[in-house]
Amino acid sequence: MLTTDSPATSRDTAPDDEAWPAPATGTVRHGPRVDAVIVAYRSAADLPACITALRDQPEIGRIVVIDHGDDGSADVARRAGADTVVTDPTNPGFGAGQNRGVALTDAPFVLLCNPDARLRPGALAAGLRVLDADPGLAAVQGIVEGAGGTDRSAGRELGPLHLWGRALGLRGLLGRPLVRRLAAASPLADAAHRVPARPTDVDTLAATAPLVRRAAFDDVGGFDPSYFLYGEDLDWCRRLRRGGWRLRTLPLAWAIHREGSSSQNTVGRERAWWNGTLSFAARWWEPRAWVGAVAAGMVAAVRHGHGHPARTRTNLAVMVGEPLRRRRAADRRV
User: Fold this and answer.
1) What does the DSSP assignment read for 137-189?
2) R_g of the chain, CA atoms, integer Å
């Protein structure tokens, strides 16, 4: 049933204000130019702070919340000041929810905001200056701080090396200076150094709180709703780049992110991450990279099984089996 209402600590630190480029010259338009879309799932605890932070941004117009959960998030969103609330307990997935929310807005720019993200003051004003100065940019996002330090919110498109690092649990090694230096000279450089020194064009932006040009979003048809959770942002960014659009990361404190509030536990998050990411690889990667991705997924499934055969079988079915079926279906269509 659908109902609609309208009424950390990190070695990487944000640059000082002086490092941020001066505002672009020319006329800067003020007032609400950005609508925000939040897709919530059991996010009642996070929504008040998220919506309050958005309301503190003078550029924000309409706030739309799409509630896919069952914990009363819709009522919380209404009380917190959301303009439009849609409830859909069938939970069709993050991308489908974002597409529905964007369709309910009409501003020239849209902020796609996670419910567990709190936007920093001044973020939208800075982002709009960059987008206004370069009509070829589809979206921008700045530095996102998570509970464990700076999130990997932008960078190169994920490849087999990224997957193997996650499968083997090697992220903790990045705290060691030698490992960080080695990673900085490899395709994993954006994992080692997550704060850009200057505005930089990148392959991908994580769908934490990107500020998006509506024309670009519409041009590629939004997110692919066949992804449930994770992978949809990689696919969206790939299609934007193929369409001639560019993405940019900014050296600006952008948001605070309490990652994982939409997943119940670590194993559930890993299953969802590998399912979505391997589904992306199944669609886009060439055969050799795809084989490496599947092997990494199998290692991760066993590792997160913690020696329990039943859990390992479930991991393999969700993390690897479903993407394999997607790949075979795509091969049959070719």
Assistant:
1) EEEEEEEEEETTEE---EESPP-HHHHHHHHTT-GGGGGSHHHHHHHHTSTTH
2) 20
CATH code assigned at 127:
3.90.550.10
pLDDT in tens, 223-244: 999 999 999 999 999 999 999 9
Q: What is the DSSP string of 26-44?
A: S----S--EEEEEEESS-T
Q: Which of 24, 21, 82 is nearest to 50 (CA)?
A: 82
Same domain? 45 vs 115: yes
Q: How far apart are CA 4 and CA 74, in angstroms?
A: 10
Q: Which residues contact 90 (CB under 8 A, 6 or more apart)?
A: 68
**Of the candidates 166, 175, 5, 168, which has an alpha carbon nearest to the alpha carbon of residue 81?**
5
Same domain, 310 and 253: no
Predicted TM-score (pTM) of this structure: 0.85
H-helix or E-strand spanning residue 86 = strand 84-87
DSSP bridge partners of 35: 110
